[in-house]
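Lab manual, section 2.4: Encoding a predicted structure.

Procedure: take the sequence of the chain (1453 residues), apply the prediction step described in section 2.3, and record the output as structure tokens. A sample record is shown.
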Amino acid sequence: MSTYDFGFREIIPDQTLPEKWKEVTINTGGTQSTLQDIKVPERAGGFTYKDTTLPYTRNRFIYWRISHDVLELVEHSLDINLVNNHVRFRFQDSPILEGVSIQESANSVQVLVPTVSSVHRLVFSHPDTITSKSLQAFSLRQPQDSIFVEASVNCVQQQSIIHHSAPNSALPQLAASYLAVNDEAIFALQYNSGSTLLVRMDYISGAVNAVEIKETTLMTRLFSGIVPGPLLRSKGAEEECVTSLVLHTLGLATYLFTLTQDCKLKLWSCDRQECIMVANLLDLLNMPKPQQGVPEPGRQNHTLRKAVGRDENDLHIGIFLSFTRKNAFLIVKPASEQGYFDLKCLIAVSDNHIGPDNDLVDFWISCSSIWAMWSNPDGETVVRHRRLRDEVTHSHGTNWTQVVPETPPDRNFDPSTQGTVDPKQAYLNYIFQPGKFPLSVINRALTIYRRPSGGSLPTHLPEVSASVLKERVSVVVENEIKNEISDLDITDEEYLEISWGAWAKFYSCCIQYYWAGTRPVALLAAPASDMIPGPLSNNPIGIVCKAQFSLFRPIDELDHLWTIGPGIADLAAFSPVTRPKNVCTPEMVTFFQALHRMDKHLPQEMKDNFDLAIHYQEDPKTLVASLVEGYDSEYFSRRSANKLLAGIVPSMLDEVVHLLTFYSLDHNTATEMDIEGDDLPKKELDNMSYLFSSQLGCNVVAEALHQTCSGRFNVLRNLLFLLQCLKKHFVTIFPKVDVNSALAERLRSRLIPAVCQLLRCYYILNWVALAPCGPVVPTMLDASMQQLNILSMRDKVEGADAAHLALRGHRSHTLLSLFLTSKSARYVHNLMAQQSTELDLLSQWHTSLLPFMTIVGKLMWPSSYLFVFPEFLLTSCQYLLVEQYVHLLKTWCDGNVHSREFILGSVLLDMGEAEKACDHFLVAAKGVNNESFLANHLAQPNYEDELEPTAEHRLVLYYLKVIKLFDQLDHSDCVLRVVDQAIRGADIYDTEMATLHSIKFHHLLRIGRHAEAFEAMHCNPDPSRRQDSLRQLINSLVQHRKLYQLISFSYSDSLLTVAEDVMLIKARSQDLLAADFYTVLHALHVKHRNYRKAASIKYEQAYRLSREVNGLASLKQQVRCLQTAINELCLVPKEYQWVLKPQWAIRNAALSSVFSDYEPPNQSPKRNYDGEEILPVDVKKKMEIVELWQMRKDSEVLLAKMELVGPEAANSRVSAVAHLSVEQLVVVLYSQSFFDLALRLSSLHELPKGSILEAIAGKCVSVTRDDENEANSSWLGYNYTSDVACGDGSVSSVAWKYLQKCLKHHEVGRQTELHKAIVVRLIKVEAFLPQWLIDSYKNRKAAELLRVLLMAGRLEEAGQLSCELYNAGMGHGSKEFGMGRGLHEKNASVWLPHNLLQWALKELEAAVEQDKLGAPFSQLFEDLKDLQSKYIGKAKRMTEGMKISTKKTAKTK
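Recorded output:
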């Protein structure tokens, strides 16, 4: 087993959060009345497990603490997180005695507890058993249950009640316990009477046996029971009082060691219940004996401790003897010869540096060392240790080495002297610094602080998080300040003074409770055993205090040189363990003595100013030079330099090199190790991966590294002052060396710059260890995880989540502890595994903790090529700290400069500073090809089979990742900056060039810069992407109503074709009423003077509107579209005045224009009787041509429908009218008195107009009969009557003139269809026939008029017409009937409807005969009959004359 002989330093882990205790009460049979006056001292102890190769038992320990009748058991592990690890056993009304022990058996951990009235065996499950039950949870690194998880009354598997018969009978004052062979528990209870009660518990049978053992004489046996016990005591009874007990098994027998006040060590056989050895320890001390025989005892009792060597029989007894003038430690070893025991004194030592006023709190021994913990009158604790025997020289050590205590909170902390203006912020930052004050202490201090002033808070404040508690403290102290200044008129200075006083008062309350909780109780250690390799290699692992615990950590040899002070001269204590053997040399010791002198020489103000200057990025070399030269003429004078540099010779500058080499943690790329651990054995890596992985372990490593970095920073600061002083007085210090020599140049150009570099590095590490982390909200975590996914750093997402979980609790974290808590700590374990450390040595902190700390420091080293820590910062969500970290390194650290710029840019992006982030991203691009982080994470191809990218392509890949970051947050302006930079730096044949142009187009389009977006699209080398971009551009321009800009672009032929296709597809898939794309496409065709395509677009729009959209708006749009199409077709040659009619299905027009194989959604395929799907048959539709005249006809129909429905018609009416055919529309039009429209449509579509004229005639009759009724005359307003509204201007006159006009315009040639219709209509309504109608009818077809009159029974009018016909036939008024000149010699050919005339004559004759009252038709009958006779006679004459003429002509020929 390796040993560690250097110094130790105390660590107080972060115990700010209050622990949850499990309370268990055990009835011991004690009574309050008999036990209330018993006072027992507070004691504590510890325990470690035997097997240290397993991660769940390695670095795992238990400490116990007793206070009156309460036993507190706490289990901790530095490797795994434990839950349910705090339990309190209350032994009701029975104070617990010193002598509690924890023993480990095969399957259990047993706690032996003696009280004044009982003894108990508490049995808990072994970690092996618990872990085997939850092996899966352990493999998933979930928190593990402590052995106390099932702590209850049932854990007391054996107990024995000690019955005290008399009420005032003596009670035991001391006790010891031990687990012997076969798990037999043995308790020894010591009474003041000198007797000892021995209780033995058999674990197998459960039997309990109690026996009293004591030393007796013959006289005491005779008078026993007769004479009272006090009278039987001898004069030396008080001196023979036992002060300490120890139980141990030697061989198969168990023995009890007792130490009396008169320095007698007695050995008792527990089996024979008799004393078998008495030894006077004064004989072993070699000190003069007083006349009384025994030195005057001191204030403390003598104490025993034991240690076990190679086996159980190798027993060492440690004895502390307290005297008035001197204290002494003895290490003895019992030896047995022929059945008799004797003591062999190994060493007798005393701690001369501890004064008589100091009290021993506890001490501990092993076979090679002794530890003692003292408390001085000021309440300070001093822990000192020394080696008993050097393993090399076999000589006894002579020097005690003090454990360097942790620096406690300053009792006299006063930030007002440091220039701080705000007392609230100063005190809160100090009090709530991570790990500084437990929250329970602050909570109790707050309760006490508010009592004098009252307040609204309850007396007992519940435990809350640090942030909530900080708010409470602020409220309470601010209220106290307000109470003091109420009703006072004070100045700002007076207010600040009151504020400082209030906050100082609260801080004093915190300090009081803090010091009360840090009062030491015992060393955290189990009895030493060389068979069990403990964490500190057979050394105590810490201190158990009243309310917390601390740990001891090993320090390396140079840190040991720095911490032990300037008086070290014994180099025998140094045996290099972790570093080269030439580090601790006499020259190095001399050099450290000079460093200590410089540390004392420098005033604290100068040190503080130096630290502040380093924080503000001042050059250490310039700063120290200015301080040495100008601080004080005498401060760094020649005389001072001689004192400070006493003993330094030129050759000692080599020690500076060794020191800097020792302190440098920079990883050389030549010795790069596999931080991913891919080549390590899985079993070894799994075991190593738990090392210092618990919350406690991470905190211990963080605090230890902070202590180391802080100490080394101080050393380097003093070294820099020392070297600068040496440089200033070089000739004085080294008179035999030339100032221009190589040594002087080495000092100026190498050593001082190297010290400055290391100084800055350690300042950064120290800053990281102290920087408190802020809270993380879920939105911050989500943003960080999205960012990591974009950057293809998915392996870091789990680390970000782990960091968030660590911050979610109430515990405060520093940046360093958060780093160790995150998944980034796996790199430390991987590097540790590569050091091939044996598993059994991992439990010893000098072979595990020190290398672990070194590796953590290397990963965090600012100038290291490894970028692990900044990668962690990327996932930590600690934006302000990351920004400050990068700022601290910016001016001097040359490694990974551009990678840190990228980290800072990412943080600024999450903080909303997109423009600043863009600046940093562009700067970071310079390191893509020479920094591993940027090259590996941000400039790698997406596919593994791609070739190694060129430098230009790596840059493009990097820019694409950055673009994704900005695109995620919609920062288009930053995307454009990056993409322009990427395009300028990329090769023109780069595979991502099309992507870059597409990105540029997309974001230009997003921010409305359409002209530039068109140019970006035009520059895109990918035709398919150009088409996609053009489609998006068209959508955006139409959406923003920038139609002019869309058609103003200069399209190439290919782009124009694409634009037309895109807009046509969009138009066919768009809402027809919006029709933006149809409009734009039409305008585009018009711009390029393709009027026929423009007309086709408008016709298609109108066609679809008529079939897909109902409503008045649709009708209006149809009219506009058709009229536009008509106008544009008029601009093309006549042979091209046509368009193709759209052919898609009406119900799916919008979709089938885009998808040729469109099917209605949710429609199952058709199948035949066999269930086979019937494939659709493509039916080729004939192409239909629509000519200009057809469009005009359609336009007139639409106009008529518009006029019919009116400007504000309901949708139902519009729908009804829209679906009318032309014939139906004509009917509806004239029924609604729209005669002009009806006649126009009838003319265009060659429809009969008779019904229309009939309707007009009917309206005229209605107006004539009642022209005062507006309902009868309103129809005139629907038609054009302005040209006939003349003359008398009466309504009836206008109506008849309108009828006359319509008849004149629409009766074609000599046709009489309309005349007949009007006449028939008028006859039906028994209206008179206007003369203009009769005259027109007579001129066209008088016979038809006569027939109509006859058939209607209008005999008078028929008779008059017949008479006029006969007169016309005879040449009188023949022109009115279109007969020329009538019967004439030169034109004897005249046709008359003789049958109709004869019918008229007969009808008149019959009417005359039937009329008995007279002859209303008689005269007409006579006239007609007379005219008939005349016409027939003239016709005969003309016929005869024509015959004679014909004959003469024939004869002449």
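Check your result against the sample. The chain has a mean pLDDT of 82.
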